[in-house]
Design brief:
six-stranded mixed beta sheet; four-stranded antiparallel beta sheet; 7 helices
């Protein structure tokens, strides 16, 4: 379980400082696919960065299974909005980077890379460089890099935001299959309400800064975005977000 307990998160200093969260409490259950929605600039990406120990909270605690994120031994994968893969490395080398902290021989690394490349449908492109790939393929490289080390937690920051509609749909279908197969805890930041309902086991809607949780809902597996209950939830989320926009 990931827990924010009375956490205060402040970015910057003095006049330029931004209070992202104050006495903020949030819990993400192990094995859940949790989607986080909130207004632009509220600090959703900062929450991911705190979980990843890239950004420290000022006060309070952020824990993974009751251990501080700064001391946790859990493996994390991170999929960025802009794919963030290395242009000078091949697809194989980019995916293998996800294994760089593990003590594995080359044969085992290649076996692991080949297996995950097949899962994300990139087996025929392992020797290609990123500049020859489409946007969707680049994002699949980033997903493979995050998954290849079998992480306990996968953090995803609007990974499909820059993709065209059809590619985004196919990417979501792939992610649903992979998340079920790998049984990781997924924390997925998005602005897309329908995407959150489609992918998530649970939806958290957060407010503008300083952040607080406005909606915390478990999503039944039978709920579709276009079902009566799905439409009602979309409207509830939309209204909450609309009231928390800085205009």
């Amino acid at each position: 379980m990931i827990r924010f307990e009375d956490a205060t998160i402040i970015l910057g200093r003095k006049r330029s400082r931004a209070v992202i969260a104050k006495n903020f409490t949030m819990r993400i259950r192990r094995g859940d696919f949790t989607c986080i929605l909130g207004p632009s600039g509220c600090g959703k990406t900062t929450l991911l960065n705190v979980i990843a120990n890239f950004q420290l909270q000022t006060r309070g605690e952020v824990l993974i299974d009751d251990v501080s994120v700064s001391e946790s031994k859990h493996r994390l994968g991170y999929v960025f909005q802009g794919h963030n893969i290395f242009p000078w490395k091949t697809v194989r080398q980019n995916i293998a980077f996800g294994l760089s902290s593990l003590n594995m021989d080359e044969q085992d690394k290649n076996r692991r890379v080949n297996a995950i490349a097949a899962e994300v449908e990139l087996s025929d492109h392992l020797d290609s460089y990123p500049d020859t790939l489409s946007g969707g393929m680049k994002q699949r490289v980033g997903l493979a890099r995050a998954l290849v080390g079998n992480p306990a937690i996968i953090l995803m920051d609007e990974p499909f935001a820059s993709l065209d509609a059809l590619t985004a749909i196919r990417s979501r279908e792939l992610l649903k299959r992979l998340s079920k197969k790998h049984s990781s805890t997924v924390v997925f930041v998005t602005h897309n309400i329908e995407e959150a309902i489609e992918l998530g086991d649970r939806i958290l809607v957060v407010s503008k800064r300083p952040m607080k949780v406005l909606i915390d809902k478990k999503i039944p597996t039978t709920m579709g975005a276009d079902s009566q209950s799905g439409i009602a939830l979309k409207n509830e989320i939309f209204d909450a977000l609309k009231l928390n926009m800085d205009v």
